[in-house]
Amino acid sequence: MKAHHGGLWVNSKPGAGTTFNLLFPAAEAMPGMPRTSLSGHYESQGTVLLADDEEAIRTITALALSKAGFEVLTAANGLEALAQFESNIEIIRCALVDEAMPGLSGGELMKAMRALKPELPIVLCSGYRESGATGAGPGDPNSTPDAFLQKPYRTADAVELIRKVMAGGSGL
């Protein structure tokens, strides 16, 4: 919560249960992120593998990617994502991977996918700052994502970044 400049209130009473209130600051846009739009002349196509252990993020991001024209395969953890990838390696054109997942971390998943398909564009996302999330080894292309997406993110920004890396651009 501190990383997002928010707060947490907990109210607990024996026999009545516990209530958690998560407070996030209101913002018109993410600081440092340009406003983007899903409109434009680019037609999205291809299959994106979306791996995130947070169900709400996975559902909302998958919906946004689908509305933008992508086919989306989802996974709730690193091992599930690797199985999805291996079963669909020929059709997956890009991956959006959360760094902190059970089973395999995003970094471990990225290395495993790149070992099988080195040209795969990968966007790594995390609630931690990029320098602490990528875990990239110097000079190791298998452990370096094509782009980094800071959580929390706007789905429009995720869509635009996926489009950019699929077109050969870098978001780092």
Description of the molecule:
The chain is an alpha/beta fold and 172 residues long. It has a single domain (40-166), classed as Response regulator (Rossmann fold). The chain has five helices and seven strands; from the N terminus they run βββαβαβαβαβα. Helix 2 (78-87) packs parallel to helix 3 (106-116). It is elongated. It starts with 6 loop residues before the first strand and ends in a 6-residue tail after the last helix. Residues 30-42 have low confidence and may be disordered.
Briefly say what this structure is:
By secondary structure, the protein is of the alpha/beta class.
Rg estimate, integer Å? 17 Å
Q: What's the domain count?
A: 1
Alpha-beta content class = alpha/beta
The overall average pLDDT, rounded, is 83
* Strand order in the sheet with the most strands: 4-3-5-6-7
Features:
172 residues; alpha/beta; Rossmann fold; 5-stranded parallel beta sheet; two-stranded antiparallel ribbon; 5 helices
What's the topology here?
Layout: E1 7-13, E2 17-23, E3 47-51, H1 55-67, E4 71-75, H2 78-87, E5 92-98, H3 106-116, E6 122-126, H4 130-133, E7 147-150, H5 155-166
Parallel strand pairs: 3-4, 3-5, 5-6, 6-7
Antiparallel strand pairs: 1-2
Helix pairs in contact: 1-5, 2-3
